[in-house]
Design goal:
Elements lengths: L14 H11 L3 E8 L4 E7 L16 H9 L6 E4 L3 H10 L10 E2 L5 E5 L9 E5 L6
Parallel strand pairs: 3-6
Antiparallel strand pairs: 1-2, 4-5, 5-6
This protein binds cobalt (II) ion.
Length: about 140
């Protein structure tokens, strides 16, 4: 039986730069690097708390997910990091040069506030920041 989401793998052209992003910019715990000879790779792992799987489907046949499905027919769409202060994180990451797909956070699921970092700022991966409703100040 499936017991957990073990990990999500992101192919990165610049390993040290990507480690710095997840460690310093996103504040995750770096568990270390490991050479996996059999796969001809160097891997870096980061720990995150228990997570969820989100299935996303267009509401009325329009919007960004409809566009995505038209282009690709489905697929892994984004990673989402939880934050307890989305406004501060957006300001901090903007100052570091991160580009966002909108000017300010917008309403997300469960009363959250969300914003997306542009994939070109993160090795082609769309990354969402989400502040849960209960963490609103
Ligand atoms: Co999401």
């Amino acid at each position: 039986m499936i017991t957990a989401l073990d990990h999500i793998a992101i192919a990165v052209p610049d390993l040290e730069g990507a480690i710095a992003r997840f460690l310093e910019d996103f504040g995750l715990q770096h568990d270390g690097n490991e050479v996996v000879e059999a796969a001809q790779t160097t891997t870096a792992f980061f720990s995150v708390p228990a997570t969820h799987i989100e299935l996303v489907h267009p509401l009325d046949g329009a919007g960004p997910i409809a566009t995505y499905l038209d282009k690709r027919g489905g697929g892994l769409h984004h990673l989402c990091f939880r934050t307890d202060d989305i406004d501060a994180d957006v300001e901090r990451l903007r100052a570091k040069g991160y580009q966002f797909t909108s000017d300010a956070p917008t309403p997300g699921a469960h009363g959250s506030r969300v914003i997306f970092i542009h994939p070109k700022s993160c090795d082609g991966v769309l990354i969402e920041l989400s502040q849960p409703a209960e963490a609103h100040s």
